[in-house]
Amino acid sequence: MAEIINMPRLSDTMEEGTVAKWFKKVGDKINEGDIIAEIETDKATMEFESFNEGELLHVGVQEGGTAPVDTLLAIIGKKGEDISGLISGSKIETSVEEEKLEPTSEIKEINELQIIPEGVEIITMPRLSDTMEEGTVAKWNKKVGDKVNEGDILAEIETDKATMEFESFYKGVLLHIGLDEGASAAVDSLLAIIGKADTDVDQLLLALNSSDALSVPKQNLKSLEKTSVIKKTDLTPEDKNEQSVNIAPVFSSNERVIASPLAKKLAAEKEINLRSVKGTGDFGRIIKRDIDNYQQLSGESSKPFTPNGIESINEIANSQMRKTIAKRLSASKFSAPHYYLGVEFDMDNAIAFRNQHNSIPDTKISFNDIIVKAVALSLKLHPKVNSKWEDHQITHHHHAHVGVAVAVEDGLVVPVIKFANEQTLPQIGTSVKDFALRARDKKLNPDEMEGSTFTISNLGMFGIQEFTSIINQPNGAILSVGAIVQKPVVKNGSIVIGNTMKLTLACDHRVVDGATGAQFLQTLREYIDNPLTMVL
């Protein structure tokens, strides 16, 4: 039977949660103990563990989405199980007769009577799973009088499904333990009190015990409404449909402002007066969202932003070239299992070689020409990299036809330097320049862009230091070439100024194994380190 997973209460003041990340998608198998999502609370981002097994049938809150505690987060069940009824009735909030009053309102009642000393925080039994009704303290990691820092593990809490560590979101001294090790209590019951050292909490404990502040059922709302502290607000049509009620305290002008610890911290950092912020949490509590959305007041009225411009767009019809590029790259990315090998080459010898070579009249070459030549020679020694995948076979090429990616207005074209291993560096340079000029004028012949066995994409001239490329099928690999960067390097045990370049080899794992790609890069490094070997 399918299980409804609700937004968990991951801290004692959590009113709603935001899904920062899903680790599973609909259709994935879920095992008990799997981390299925990261949930952002008002205090921290925490991993949420599954206590159910089955298939993830439905996701109720998308990444970046926010939902109140105890509303539908996900549904786990058997594959193919009909969950339409569960989704259509996904308002998991219970009725007035069944639901329990949030304890924070009762603590706030005591707070209004100025019983809670300044700086004191009441810690209640957290709801650590979506079905948890009560918890047992398996172990206390702190004792009364111990200093507690934000993030310290206060205790280990045993739920109906697992034993989990409970983290403190407050800083201070543990003043009181409300539940001994081995004892159990309902969710939201008094667990502990944290505050300043030597703070007297006897009056607070007396008030908590005498008012049953932490266990007031909703059916007792009528008697509570007779007090001047809380009242039942009028129901909106939406509230009536969901059979829920809102409880709000009546505040006076000299009351303490109720805010989450994170909201207080952010307000202090931004120098925001909390009394000028309207809280949107339960019972008017100020939470992180309110601080983020706050606009500093000027005098008695705020100054809203008034834009000077208008929204505008520019729609450009996709050219046939852009459509073809999109189709081919999508097919490559989603059909070929890409993996990447990154290296950093010492370019000092290549720089010296190029400077000397270009000192000869009419023989100018670029670093890209050196890379093309070195790649072509390396491919001859590693035909497994110079290959392509076919349904019935793998084809190894013993000729090196190197494609060189050229950016044009409508996208990217890849003219091919055929038999690049047999050409001289100046010949390669002449061909690349000619292809680039004619490519930008759309004057390349179709046969000049066919037959590549390997591709090079170089963004170094744009200052890009490192990147990855999508394989240009039917090639089995593509090399991404970054900029030459001058930086400190270690040579012969000493730190000196050197010149390096990062390259990333993207491989189709169906064709090129990791060791094969690594060996190819080793050979390529030898040619770049000793460029004279390419011309001798």
Strand order of the largest sheet: 19-28-27-26-22-25
Ranges where pLDDT stays below 50 over 5 or more residues in a row are: 91-106, 212-254
The assigned CATH architecture of the largest domain is: 2-Layer Sandwich
User: So what's the overall shape?
Assistant: elongated
Kindly state the percentage of residues in helix: 10-25%
> Proportion of β residues?
25-35%
Structural class: alpha+beta
Q: For the report, how would you describe the main beta sheet?
A: 6 strands, mixed
Give the averaged pLDDT, no decimals. Answer: 81
Here the CATH topology of the largest domain equals: Chloramphenicol Acetyltransferase
What gyration radius follows from the Cα positions, in whole Å? 33 Å
Query: How many strands appear in the DSSP assignment?
Result: 28
Oligomer, anyone?
Answer: single chain
- Ends apart, CA distance between termini: 74 Å
Number of domains: 4
Helix count equals 12
CATH C-level label of the largest domain: Alpha Beta
**What name goes with the CATH superfamily of the largest domain?**
Chloramphenicol acetyltransferase-like domain
Defining traits:
536 residues, OB fold (Dihydrolipoamide Acetyltransferase, E2P), Dihydrolipoamide Transferase, 4 domains, six-stranded mixed β-sheet, four-stranded antiparallel β-sheet
